[in-house]
User: What shape does this take?
Amino acid sequence: MINNNNNNNHPPSGATSTPGLSLSEHSKLWGNANSTTSSPHSISPKSFQFDSSGSSSSTANKMSPLIRDFVQGLDDSEWQRSLFSLLQNQTYNQCEVDLFELMCKVLDQNLFSQVDWARNSCFFKDLKVDDQMKLLQHSWSDMLVLDHMHQRMHNSLPDETTLHNGQKFDLLSLGLLGVPSLRDRFAQVTIKLQELKFDISDYICVKFLLLLNPDVRGIMNRTHVEEGHEQVQKALLEYCVTAYPQIQDKFNKLMNVLPELHEIASRGEEHLYLKHCNGGAPTQTLLMEMLHAKRK
Assistant: This one.
């Protein structure tokens, strides 16, 4: 399962997967209702101060109960604490580390947190493990890119940080899944979202829409996924109309951005997969299991 040691020589809880596990064995993550994974959506905020514009009084009153529950379940402060804790712990007492390998470790941690969030989330938690895994295998990279856009837009995630050993780490590379040539594309999508006044309520609804994709092949309980997708879609549409009446057709414009986000995620996936096949990426991680699962 998950390494829960959290000291100066190890990444924080949930940071690494156990070597040698197949994707089916990773399903244990779904089965434990009292997971100890450090999820950015299940721990109370502590020290970080984050932008709360997505739930300001002017828009909070226009949220449906569904969206309000989604937003209240977020904990962005833990997301960044977990990120920076892993970066520092991985470079403690190290003269120099492989920055690409470190990036993969961070993405792996992001995936574990994503799994923990999903399996405890509305609609998704009612599905059987096989359906849950299929949905996550299809959506994980899109959601990772979306998460990093959200953190940069709403929580001031910087472009880079200085590690414990003095090395500079490119935080933007996480959102690009390691492909520097995608920087301009990432920036263009971010600008489009900013122009649409993309807020935290929009973000979490879009994340649910990415996760609850009824078009994923092989789902057994497609009806439940469709119902969840439709409920979130309806709630987001109503929110866009009532909270942002000045932005004409905001909902459809948001939906039109999703293929562009998917393009970034797909190119990033392909890059990571090729690096892995050429021996340039860590093996036996949840990240690599996800990359292989979509190509079986």
